[in-house]
């Protein structure tokens, strides 16, 4: 009996958002594809039916269907939201989340379903305060003045440190737990995720895995690489290939906190 198709992960990535519309790229991995016959190699490229549902906290609901080509066990689709509810850090605005549901498969391979929550936010660096001052953060086009940085080491990972408006949680020496990011999404806490030091053989796969797991969270403000020494340019390039949306910081939050 053939093995049914299984969705491994689902990652919505907010490519653009303003008051009028949001553009979301949704990436997913589907394994294992079913061979056409016993002992036949699994195909690298094939088509599947995809159904997407989207629900907002205010009762918003939308859905759509498509036929997508799956290549190297991965698929991608883009959709838009009109007049989106945007996510803000605590003290700056509300933290609305959307629930994205994805059903993938066909009658021969079977179907699988995954859901995830995500928020619509845009974090950028800009010299909005003047060309002679360090770049500030722009959250949804508005200046976010960071007054404090709260380092979070692996020893603190079991509990979210107290945070308040105008604070950034800086996760260092480990990748933040999924529960931590989910709590930050709901609490309105911005996070800068440091890329932990790894041997060269493990660094790139770990970066790609972290992007797949964390980049859909609205609380993620960006990635920090300023401590990586000679590897900083290589890791920065890898991050920008995997995640073209979030900033990569080499000097932020600040050298003392890093």
Describe this structure in words.
- The strands form 4 sheets. The chain has a 5-stranded parallel beta sheet with strand order 11-12-13-14-15. A 4-stranded antiparallel beta sheet has the order 4-3-6-7, with no helix packed on it.
- The protein folds into 2 domains: 6-118, Immunoglobulin-like (Sandwich); 123-249, TIM Barrel (Alpha-Beta Barrel).
- The N and C termini lie far apart (53 Å).
- With 258 residues, the chain is mostly beta strands.
- 14% of the residues lie in helices and 41% in strands.
- The longest helix has 15 residues, at 200-214.
- It contains 3 helices and 15 strands.
- The protein is globular and about 60 Å long.
- Helix 2 (200-214) packs parallel to helix 3 (232-242).
Distance between the termini: 53 Å
Run of helices and strands: EEEEEEEEEEEEHEHEHE
The CATH class designation of the largest domain is Alpha Beta
Topology-level CATH name of the largest domain: TIM Barrel
**Integer count of domains:** 2
Largest pleated sheet: 5 strands, parallel
Low-confidence stretches: 34-38, 254-258
Helix segment count?
A: 3
- Over the alpha carbons, how many angstroms does the gyration radius reach? 20 Å
Q: What sort of overall outline do the alpha carbons produce when their principal axes are compared?
A: globular
- Name of the CATH architecture of the largest domain: Alpha-Beta Barrel
- The percent range for strand residues is 35-45%
* Mean pLDDT over all positions: 84
Backbone structural class: mainly beta
Strand line-up in the sheet with most strands: 11-12-13-14-15
How many strand segments? 15
Task: Report the CATH superfamily of the largest domain.
Answer: Glycosidases
Helicity level = 10-25%
Oligomer: single chain
